[in-house]
Amino acid sequence: xxxxxxxxxxxxxxxxxxxxxxxxxxxxxxxxxxxxxxxxxxxxxxxxxxxxxxxxxxxxxxxxxxxxxxxxxxxxxxxxxxxxxxxxxxxxxxxxxxxxxxxxxxxx
Length: 108
Description:
Number of strands: 7
Distance between the termini: 15 Å
Order of helices and strands: EEEHEHEEE
Strand content: 15-25%
């Protein structure tokens, strides 16, 4: 796996009400007005490889299956290397759920 271009220690973090810290800069997955789900998924995979650790997504974008596959593929390939990433899937424009993905034990 190619070394990350983004220096994680330079990314500001925000503390959520539950105490988790998440990056203040993330990668959005909207693009369905110009790009298909597969193209967005490739961009997500590339973004993770470069160091993005916050992925913003919504069901209304209609690319959640492909984005999920890109996340799974990145984890299987060893990225994020010893770090966790956050995904913020949203339903519509009102409710917000938060998912946390972590590397399996022994990969950190």
